[in-house]
Amino acid sequence: MPRLIECVPNFSEGSDLAVIRRITDEIEAVDGARLLDVDPGKATNRTVVTFVGEPEAVLDAAVAAVRKAAELIDMKKHTGEHPRFGATDVCPLVPVAGVTMEETVEYARELARRLGEEVGITVYCYENAALSEERRNLATVRAGEYEGLKDKLADPNWKPDFGPAEFNARSGATAVSARDFLVAYNVNLNTTSTRRANAIAFDIREKGRIKREGNPLTGPIVKDEDGNTVWIPGSLKCCKAIGWFIDEYGIAQISINLTNINVTSIHECFDEASRRAEARGIRVTGSEIVGLVPLQAMLDAGRYFLRKQKRSTGIAESEIIKIAVKSLGLDDLAPFKPEEKIIEYILADKDRNLLVDRTVTGFVEETASESAAPGGGSVAATLGALGAALGTMVANLSAHKRGWDDRWEEFSDWAEKGKACHEELLALIDKDTDAFNAIMAAFGLPQGTDEEKAARDEAIQAATRGAIDVPLRVMEVALQSLDVIAAMAESGNPNSVSDAGVGALCARSAVMGAYLNVKINSSDLADKEAVADYLARGAKIQEEAKRREREILAVVEEKL
Predict the structure, then answer these.
(1) What gap in Å lies between CA 390 and CA 502, rounded to an integer?
(2) Residue where a domain terminates, one of 178, 206, 237
């Protein structure tokens, strides 16, 4: 697994696209850093940039980008709706894969040190990278913004963590952090009132609002026994929010940072903001995601709204995302393009020529060609995927059958199980071809010396095990899919019972076809004890699949 971290610098320029481009060019010039998203905002005069890569490459790219921003952006001339105190206002690092939060903290502090020493930037560390507890909160670190930075730096208590303590009027200061994945999220309102938007923001944000005696707007501020201001907490944890007016769209928005979407999700935030807005006579018209969003957050949202409708969640990923987009109103102000906004879709290898991405005709013709792959293994996985898909289809039809409304959840659960099977079987179509190619590559290794011969033999045996494991997994998953198919034959929509029968035939054939691959590939494995185990496991699965198929077809024939 690659070690990946994400960097999300916010630059204090949202209008001059030439300046933004010169900054992002610095990122793209670093080998190993991949620019994912550039999201400028005119009203905020701020651009959120997202890039990802191996930690060392990300740090190099961040240093180069911050240096260029300090050269091009003059904070003396900056105005905008969003709080800020530097040309590069914040520069958080986020662990993505193969890197712990503890490691990310060390990378963030190393980045802060380099920015201070190599670029001469005044740097404060916040959130998980904070060097002191009182600097964990970004709002505290950035209090007073750019306009108050000179006085802040004159206070010994606000000596920066790295870099010069002298006020740089041009570049200001930068806050560096290590944090969990943050979703910048705006909720659109059918009002132009910033005050009302702020009221809703105070309702939902974790910090809440100041407690006052009598009139909640103008009454005296309540203090505790130590003289500290008392706050009334808002309804959502891990939620920061303010209200503002967006001149570009002519509406007020609630600008939200969801700092941990495992605690407060996008859809929970949307619904709560909608409830609070309605209570104040205001309607939420939609929302927007600033920057990028994890796939899981979108799938969770889509499934949440499907469940509210009492509809099956065992549908295609693309359909679930479509429901999320429509339900959250993510296309209210501009089109929401999943391929440009969802991290996993952007990182996907679009250049790989996958069998599953071909048309049916293209797949069949490739199978019929002179090439040895794809072959029986990929076809067996395809049969299994089709069988599981038929079981899923019957479950979805049953969930929506008139008069069966009280059973929607039962069938939705079956559809989810069937979907998991056909998704894994789809992936196994290409894995089977990959396994074949791995064997061919191993046979092509040099064998001039004894060491090379030994390494080649070891590589061939390892690749052979892979070529057995893949079809064996096809057998296991296809057998699992028969649970779904059997349930649908017995209790699903009776008008689709023949589809369940065809699904059973496909699943059984997938098991038998994959077992042939297990047997032929096992013949090349030197470890005969392992061979015996593979064959015994395969034989057991095959007999069970045949038995289940007979039972299902008996049910189908009885109902036809």
Answers:
(1) 8
(2) 178
**329 with 408, same domain?**
no
Residue-level length of the chain: 560
Active-site residue, from 39, 60, 78, 82 = 82
Domain coverage including residue 25: 4-178
pTM: 0.78
pLDDT digits (tens, 9 = 90+) for 27-81: 999 998 999 889 998 888 999 999 998 999 999 999 999 999 999 999 999 988 8
Phi-psi region of 441 (alpha: psi -120 to 50; beta: other; left: phi over 0): alpha
Sign, Cα dihedral of 491, 495, 499, 504: positive
Q: Which one of 180, 300, 432, 499 is the catalytic residue?
A: 432
With 0-12 CB in 10 A as exposed, 13-18 as middle and 19+ as buried, what is 371? exposed
Residue 82 annotated as catalytic: yes
Q: Number of C-alpha atoms within 13 angstroms, CB side, residue 498?
A: 2
Going by C-beta distance under 8 Å and a sequence separation of 6 or more, which residues neighbour residue 501?
Answer: 489, 552, 553, 556
**Count of domains forming the chain:** 3
Domain stop point among 156, 178, 200: 178
Q: Is 25 a catalytic residue?
A: no
